[in-house]
Each structure stands twice: as structure tokens, then as C-alpha cells.
Model the fold of this input.
Amino acid sequence: MGPWKLEFSREAAKALVRMPRDQSRLVRGKLDELCVDPLAARNVRRLTTQPSFRMRVGDWRVIYLLIDDRIVIHVIRIAPRGNAYR
Done:
């Protein structure tokens, strides 16, 4: 884990608990990598319709905000590909 800290919305935390355990471990590992350098991570794109970022983890999408003044990655949503952008 790097200098950035993770915060989860209630929805994101529930999704992480409800997803299959192997997928949950994979997503959590990618989020830990993201904490080291959120802008250098692979499979990350800035979303055009909102001020957030998207990280691809297999068929799952992690939508998050970077809060620079608090050095926090706020995870908004973790969802399967088709439901992530609603």
C-alpha cells in the first residue's frame, strides 16, 4: 500500500463483499496497486462525462475519484461492465 488511502462508498463496499471471493481478491489487489501511484496504473481511464476515473479489472469496473488535498482514492462504484456507468 502506498501513500494514497482508500475510502469506499457504501455501495462499493457492499459490492466488494457480495462479489465472488476470487474476484474480490483481484479487485482489492488492483486497488492496493492503485494506492502507490493512481495515475500510472494500467487499465485506468479518465471518464469524460464525470470528474472520475475508471479502472478495468477483468469484467468488473471500479469507478473512483482522486481527492488530492486528502491524498484519498474514493471508490464510488464497483460493478460488472454493463452496470458500472449508470
